[in-house]
Design a protein that fits this description.
This protein is α+β, with helices and mostly antiparallel strands and 198 residues long. The protein contains two helices and seven strands, in the order βββββββαα. The chain has helices at 105-130, 132-142; strands spanning 9-18, 31-38, 41-47, 60-67, 71-74, 83-89, 95-101. A seven-stranded antiparallel β-sheet has the order 4-3-2-1-7-6-5, covered by helices on one side. β5 (71-74) and β6 (83-89) form a beta hairpin. The longest helix is centred in the middle third of the chain and has 26 residues, at 105-130. The protein is globular. One of its GO terms (biological process) is axon guidance. InterPro entries: PH-like_dom_sf (IPR011993), RhoGEF_Guanine_NuclExch_SF (IPR051336), SOS1_NGEF_PH (IPR055251).
Length: 198
């Protein structure tokens, strides 16, 4: 498929990756892989040499991928802050496990945090789809519209998995509908407000 269909690129780093081989068992040796985290997929690739005709731009060969909808995370393997595992559930119920390792614990921890946020957003979205009224009720109890820290349109996990855009409280979700401006408590609009035309 097209990379543009996979959503926004959220991160990329080079890891030492132990990949599953035929039969689902982990390879006995790891390989250096460039890993790309998109909103909808994680792609494992192998870096090519300096590019076409010595150009500075790097090239990559696709090796494997995990769809975010099938993604699982195991952080800090064996207590090591530089190692974590990404898992992929197969259609038959089998699980493929990719162990990623880097020399910099900050890189590993940033990936663990980012993937955990994606999985939490996915879980919130699924809960909202399965029980929309209960989900709205629970969210309204923990968040107040129009107050700092409250529900913001476009905040992670509130509209759709991976949505990272921060939208102001008066931007319309649907351009064909009028916008809603939420004023701070006690403040009154003095003049008619123009509609957003985004």
């Amino acid at each position: 498929g097209k990379l543009t269909a996979q959503g926004k690129l959220l991160g990329q780093d080079t890891f030492w990756v132990t990949e599953p081989e035929a039969g689902g068992l982990l390879s006995s040796r790891g390989r250096e892989r460039r890993v790309f985290l998109f909103e909808q997929i994680i792609i494992f690739s192998e870096a090519l040499g300096g590019g076409v005709r010595g150009a500075a731009q790097a090239g990559y060969v696709y090796k494997s991928s995990i769809k975010v909808s099938c993604l699982g995370l195991e952080g800090n393997l064996q207590g090591d802050p530089c190692r974590f595992a990404l898992t992929s559930r197969g259609p038959e119920g089998g699980v493929q496990r990719y162990v990623l390792q880097t020399a910099d614990p900050a890189v590993s921890q940033a990936w663990i945090k980012q993937v955990a946020q994606i999985l939490e957003s996915q879980r919130d979205f699924l809960n909202a789809l399965q029980s929309p009224i209960e989900y709205q009720r629970r969210e309204s109890q923990t968040n107040s519209l129009g107050r700092p820290g409250g529900l913001r349109v476009g905040s992670p996990g509130r509209i759709r998995p991976g949505d990272r855009a921060q939208v102001s409280t008066h931007a319309p979700i649907n351009g064909s509908l009028p916008s809603l401006l939420l004023l701070p408590k006690g403040e009154v609009a003095r003049a008619p407000l123009p509609l957003d035309t985004q």
